[in-house]
Amino acid sequence: MADLLDELTDPEWETPSLCHAWRIRDVAAHVALTPRSPSTLDILMAGVRARGDLDAVNRDLAVAHARRPEADLAAELRRDADNRSKPTITTLDNLVMDTLVHVQDIAVPLGRVVPMPPEPARAALDRVWRMGWPFWARRRFRTTRLVASDIGWTRNDEAFTAEISGPADALLLLLTGRTAAAARLTGTGTAGLA
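Given the sequence above, the corresponding structure tokens read:
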């Protein structure tokens, strides 16, 4: 992500990302903030201020952190790339998925291509499929066979009425609620994606 951010022009930092109501800089700040996340008490207090809206809490924290200079955000990402510290309310599996998706949240709207490493992509697809909130992928696609054609990952091989197939990165975006990569997916289940 830091390498991608180094290439951006000033206007690109302000471009809307694939995350609803988040600019590119907000997504970068969200990921950069991860190793030094606020305490559980601070998150709970922010949750009360946001009336229980965890998306608003995440966005508010990211927007506040995004006020720093662009070069600082990229430097933080580089400095902490090997740091395994995490917020108390998440897991390392979630952070792998989160980071892979957020790189695409930045790259796709800017027309950049950032390849997704196969094994982390497989782990991220598995994680999104297992988890419920906030994506509910298994529920939303319960009758759709899903195929990540580039890494051999499939779900719902037994009982399906439709199929969606494509590269792992496009499928991961879809499972996390982003339809921006729908044009790279094929199959009978793609008809209603847009």
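The domain at 118-190 is CATH 3.30.1050 (Nonspecific Lipid-transfer Protein; Chain A). Try to locate this feature in the token string yourself.
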